[in-house]
Amino acid sequence: MANPSILILAGDGIGPEVMAEVKKIIGWFGDRRGIAFDVTEDLVGGSAYDVHGTPLTDATMAKAQAVDAVLLGAVGGPKYDVLDFSVKPERGLLRLRKEMDLYSNLRPAQCFDALADFSSLKRDVVAGLDIMIVRELTSGVYFGEPRGIFPDNEGGRVGVNTQRYTTDEIRRVARSAFELARRRGNKVCSMEKANVMESGILWREEVQWVHDNEYPDVELSHMYADAGAMQLVRWPKQFDVIVTDNLFGDLLSDCAAMLTGSLGMLPSASLGAPTESGRPKALYEPVHGSAPDIAGQGKANPIACILSFAMALRYSFDMGEEATRVERAVEAVLADGARTADLMGPEGGVPVSTAGMGDLIVKALEASL
Ligand code: IPM
Ligand code: MG
């Protein structure tokens, strides 16, 4: 049987440097666990624009469709702010998500014990936290038509985006949230703004329908997304799985990331429907951005990207135990006090560079054998 295939799109800013650490982990699995991956690499975002004049070429798109999993670093940077909207780095990422139909975006917020004091919230609020945000990723206001900037009738302009959801789009992401809940705490909280948006009313009704007809055994609650944001920082442990739309999920997941101590800790998996191989179409990426302000200085935290690879092991390659091995290695390194710049708080720690963190995690993997 062919080796599982991975396409690495390191992207911009700190993307390449955090991805370099993931490559060490992939290499370790080949050398030490006999689990070899066929890895290819290509460009996305600003780095693709610089070479090809587009943030994602058709050839790269075709490669992404053909592999078992895509690993992405980050896209964007101030250098590209002046570009036309259609060729901005972010368009490359949105095209991947849309054309691979990666409708279910899993963003787990887990607080490692060693970082519980580092969060801006009190230790007892975040210690042991383990929640999963499921964000709808291919529809809603980020993709809805009509969209654009148009002249209005008074000589000014009007910017238009459309929040739009169909029954099927809501039901399929709801199913993925209920499936996950069954393997976790069996609780789903759905968030929308049904008090002011028709798309929110439909969202609530369809999630309830999926629950009543297919997952009556899972506990379901509904919350307005603004109240949900408040509850996330008040007492996040009340949640198990949160399912929400594209825009609210974008906001709520950044918020949840800070519960874990740093945006540099949060991985994500973007999954589509199962393909013929039985594996879902899949893209894995850290939730953090390209952080151009610290790029190239060895300050970036590679953990979110490494944990994204762990998610690939779990969700694409059915290697849950190996995924746990990576997560434990990260935990052990943090428990030993190793801290990249973003994790250096008043309580101190042992400062390490991006590469230093990757090397320590490889060592901890080695110690796990
Ligand atoms: C995210 C990011 C992206 C988004 C950007 C980079 C397009 O913020 O993945 O959360 O808005 O979805
Ligand atoms: Mg975001």
Automatic annotation (TrEMBL):
Occurrences of domain Isopropylmalate dehydrogenase-like (ranges): 5-361
GO biological processes: L-leucine biosynthetic process
Keywords: Amino-acid biosynthesis, Branched-chain amino acid biosynthesis, Cytoplasm, Leucine biosynthesis, Magnesium, Manganese, Metal-binding, NAD, Oxidoreductase
UniProt catalytic activity: (2R,3S)-3-isopropylmalate + NAD(+) = 4-methyl-2-oxopentanoate + CO2 + NADH
Main localization (coarse): cytoplasm
Binding site for Mg(2+): 226, 250, 254
Pfam assignment, any one: Iso_dh
Chain residues that bind NAD(+): 77-90, 289-301
One GO CC term on file: cytosol
Residues the UniProt record annotates as site (Important for catalysis): 142, 193
Known EC number: 1.1.1.85
Cofactor: how and how many bound: Binds 1 Mg(2+) or Mn(2+) ion per subunit.
Cofactor field: Mn(2+); Mg(2+)
Localization per record: Cytoplasm
PANTHER family referenced in this protein's UniProt entry, alphabetically: 3-ISOPROPYLMALATE DEHYDROGENASE
Described function: Catalyzes the oxidation of 3-carboxy-2-hydroxy-4-methylpentanoate (3-isopropylmalate) to 3-carboxy-4-methyl-2-oxopentanoate. The product decarboxylates to 4-methyl-2 oxopentanoate.
Entry's family note: Belongs to the isocitrate and isopropylmalate dehydrogenases family. LeuB type 1 subfamily.
Protein name: 3-isopropylmalate dehydrogenase
Organism: Frigidibacter mobilis
Gene: leuB
